[in-house]
Amino acid sequence: MDTELFNIQPTAPEPIYRQIMEQLRRLIASGQLAAGEALPSVRDVAGRHAINPMTVSRAYSMLENEGLLERQRGKGMVVAATRRKPQSQERLLGHLEPRLQDLARHARELDLPKKLLLDRLRELLDEDPT
Amino acid sequence: MNATAQMIESDNTTVELSPLSCNGIYKCYDGVNVLSGVSLNIPQGAVLGLIGRNGAGKSSLIRILLGLLMPDRGESFVMGEASLKMTDASKTRLGYVPQQPDALAWMRVKDMLEFIGSFYPKWDSVYAGDALLRWGIPGEKTLAKLSPGERQRVALIRALASNPSLLVLDEPAAALDPVARRDLLREIAMRAGDSGTTVLFSTHIVSDLERVASHVAFLHKGRMLLNASMDDLKETHARLALPSSSAQQLQGLLPGEVSRRRHHDGSVSIVLAREINSAWPDAAQWPGARLDVLGLEDLFVEVTE
To answer: What is residue B286's DSSP assignment?
Structure first.
């Protein structure tokens, strides 16, 4: 991806960092920038447009805070994976997978009705730990 | 922030001293006030654009900040030292490009750069040589034989090759063509980004400033009208246009009013400032009222006209 990506209007009333943020949001929403794709470096964008590097890094950081971009070692700033939240939940569930499989096996060994087990599990999950 | 203190400690964070600041500066020439109580504080690493119309007092302020001119009242500091008593060590960390560079005009360009370079511990002679080539300046000519634009560029090379931690440019773009200007702006921006150089540059060309400045100060008739970060300035200022019917309801100043102009037909336009993310005054809802966000040039014209 190259630095021509951005169309920067220094004289517009909208601050430059906002122009960059808006353009990146659109490019990502429209799929022109795919997840994992690297952004041009702050230095390259600033040099190409003769703008202050701090302005570019402000835009990148704010989008990073919003979860739209992420910093990747060796690649710099990249477009964040779009299904980030569900994926991370799946990953968390993965930690419980061995215990869940054990539970299912024990329940089958005891020939417990599914509903009885699931209701109890639901009760436990709804309990306030405090 | 008290510029005389070496460091200011608060909550375990150390706030570094402003590289360039002044308090309550007054200067008068032949009974005319050129500067009337100007205070300025440039944060470390900032690129501050000082805008003002011709004769606004920009050059006088810069010369006072650097200790080249004595103010009638007020005090100024460079890297924590009183400007008028700057040490040699501080001077080697300061790059200054005057509006009309005329020092050592009898020397050949290359000789002058070599001579000057010997005074600076961080002199980059490779940069100086490359920059002469890039800008097509004949190193064998004497400075006096160069065009004004070429002389200004040599002065820029001289300032940049010393790798200053504070760079002060008085109307650096005035004698440069658009391509050379863009080059210079890029250089300023990258210096600030890569080496954390603090930059002050004065200009009356507002669009130059909008590219690279992180902070903006408007100097008008010897007073500092506005002084803020560029992004804040754009996000917190707008122009309210009221038709004459609504303008008649105005009583006194509106909250956050910066300036007001009354037009022949009885309508008014008012520049308003607000806190970030807060609402505009109720007058923005009056019948026929229109609120426009402003570019820097429009804002400058509105507040200085």
So the answer is: S
